[in-house]
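Contributing new complexes? Match this layout with NAP.
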Amino acid sequence: MSIFSLVTGRPGRSGFGSASTAEEVTAGIDASHLTAIITGGAGGIGLETARVLALRKAHVIIAARNMKAAKEAKDLILKDDENARVDVLKLDLASLKSVREFVDKFIALDLPLSILINNAGVMFCPYQLSEDGVELQFATNHLGHFLLTNLLLDKMKETARTTGIEGRIVNLSSIAHIHTYQNGIKFDTISDKESYSDKRAYGQSKLANLLHSNELSRRFQEEGVNITANAVHPGLIMTPLFKHSAITMRILKFFSFFLWKNVPQGAATTCYVALHPNLKGVTGKYFVDCNEVEPSALATNESLARELWDFSNKMINSLKA
Ligand SMILES: NC(=O)c1ccc[n+]([C@@H]2O[C@H](COP(=O)([O-])OP(=O)(O)OC[C@H]3O[C@@H](n4cnc5c(N)ncnc54)[C@H](OP(=O)(O)O)[C@@H]3O)[C@@H](O)[C@H]2O)c1
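Output block (do not edit by hand):
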């Protein structure tokens, strides 16, 4: 998709473009046979994603760290459609313990699982460590989602096998994946304070989201599993994500207003990739404005994806209490 398409909203090959909303790209889709988990589904793009998936009759599990916001999100969705199936479960991605507790609670519900949307994220935080002592943007945006996905994989595989319904994993990456550290991921100094850059650490975590979905996709194909994994850039949407750079971003938005989307448009690509029948069997791809585009060379580097996978596994094992 070109800047021209972004600004004008002209649809791409999928028939959708930057101006398409989540409701538009899922119009007529019946998702009543699907259960979906959406991390960070209590606010921003995640809430709109949860609302629209529920509108299409999916059973939606909002995974959120702030339970008050999650309950308000649930009420808002039920106000829209009193028959919506929405549940909320606590999940703090910056705590590996919380990720494990979330999965235990979800498994105890004995529900199937076809859709996992790894949406939650933080951006441009001042240097900070997670509960497990890992740099916060890497910990929240990548490591928490990496563990969450791994712990849910058996459930997703079982659902795909017993129902014949394709599973889909959608990772919220960003165009910012191109602005990372040299060599992409600074494995040796991942939580190092001296070399920390709030912008590059965000880019690194968003590159990790892309590498993660590509490696998942490669493994699913190798195993012959009926699950796809793709990454998306939702566009530029003014949400609380920008709280650490609010003034700069508002000034930037003033001069580049034509590049920005509203929240319903911002949730469109995620909902398209999660639900649309056009994408049956499509895996290991990156989508912007509901159309497939090429990410950076680092993002398609298979050995980097494997290295990140092994690194993340080792890190999680070393952090086990
Ligand atoms: N907005 C954009 O322009 C843009 C552009 C490119 C990519 N993205 C990506 O899109 C995704 C959604 O962004 P957004 O704009 O909707 O941001 P947002 O409004 O700030 O929403 C992010 C959500 O993630 C949750 N979250 C943050 N840390 C968490 C943690 N440790 N555990 C569980 N949940 C946590 C937040 O919960 P709290 O309310 O509790 O903080 C919030 O619900 C992010 O992955 C972001 O990187 C956004």
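Reviewers usually confirm one structural detail per submission. For this one: The pocket of NAP is lined by residues 39-40, 42-46, 64-66, 69, 91-94, 119-123, 140, 172, 174, 233-234, 236-237, 239-241 (CB under 6 Å).
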